[in-house]
Amino acid sequence: MRKPDSLKAVLLRSVKPLADNPENLTLFIDRGAIGCRAGSLSFQYSYTLNVVVQDFAGNLDTLIVPILGWIAENQSELLQKGDSQPFTFEAEILDGDLCDVSIDIALTERVRVTPAQGGVHVTHLDDTLPTDAFPGVAGVRLIDGVVDMTP
After folding, report:
1. pLDDT at 132
2. Can you tell which superkingdom this protein's organism belongs to (predicted)?
3. CB 3.0-4.6 Å disulfide test: which of 42, 53, 76, 97 passes with 101?
């Protein structure tokens, strides 16, 4: 699975409190499932990615916006859901300006498995959108994994 590492890299590059304290960011995969069809070894991972940020100091927007930007490029159908809720979150307010935040994102990743000499060839299919295919959400676009909010 590649999406957890991709999102983690974006958050560490674009959220200053996490860049300064990467140990405060932990990712877990919950409720994982494999989907496949008879006659093929190709499959799809379906899982909930739980992003946990401990002792977060700062405006929660600085965490939410990069996640929305990442979703726009890596799992864009979440932004088109009928309930308009691409993910859920919980936060525990701690002392001072600190909080612990838990974010759940339902993700999928497709994997093609084809016969190869002496075994199989496994290819993780790219779910990202081509450059400039999606204008971003509310003017937000990831540029080299960093959120750009310029108009």
Report:
1. 46
2. Bacteria
3. 53
Dihedral sign for Cα 128, 129, 131, 132, please: negative
Domain boundaries, the chain: 3-148
13, containing H or E segment = helix 3-14
Helix (H, G, I), strand (E, B) or coil at 86: coil
Give the per-residue pLDDT at 150.
52
Distance CA 8, CA 71 (A): 12
pTM (two decimals): 0.79
Number of CB atoms found within 10 A of residue 30's CB: 10
How many of the other CB atoms lie within 10 Å of CB of 20?
A: 10
Residue type, 44: Q
**End-to-end Cα distance, the chain:** 34
The CB density around residue 138, as the number of other CB atoms within 10 Å, is: 10
Q: Give tens-digit pLDDT for 97-121.
A: 899 999 999 999 999 999 889 898 9
